[in-house]
Amino acid sequence: MMDHQSHPKEPLEPSVTPSDDNEPVQQAAACHAEGSNGKRVRKSHHSQEMKSNLISRLNRVEGQIRGIKGLIEKDTYCDDVLTQIAAAQSALNSVGKLLLEGHMKSCIVERIQAGEHEVVDELLVTVRKLMK
User: Fold this and answer.
1) Residue 45 and residue 87: Cα distance in Å, rounded?
2) pTM passes above 0.85
3) Going by DSSP bridges, is the β-strand pair 24-26/16-18 parallel, antiparallel, or unpaired?
């Protein structure tokens, strides 16, 4: 969904912030890594807690999608299927919001502090994609 990029510098201290569900979520420490060839690679660095939260949410969305497929196979009334599609879209949007929050609080801040103001344009493109 989103790529993260930053140039090497001192990593930000991890912080804990509430998510949309008022659960504390550990934020990323930095959004860069050195690749095997020594080049900078855009990569996120989510805490294990954040990864588990995101994976759990995505597993639920995956189950919802399989359920929707089953409803269609069973010729379920269209309105009922559409309601389930809306629920799956909402759950996926929730994952996107968590990722966006972490990205803005770590990667974006870090890159702006490093003088990389073009990251704001990158962020705006990403937000436009999320709002479609």
Assistant:
1) 29
2) no
3) antiparallel
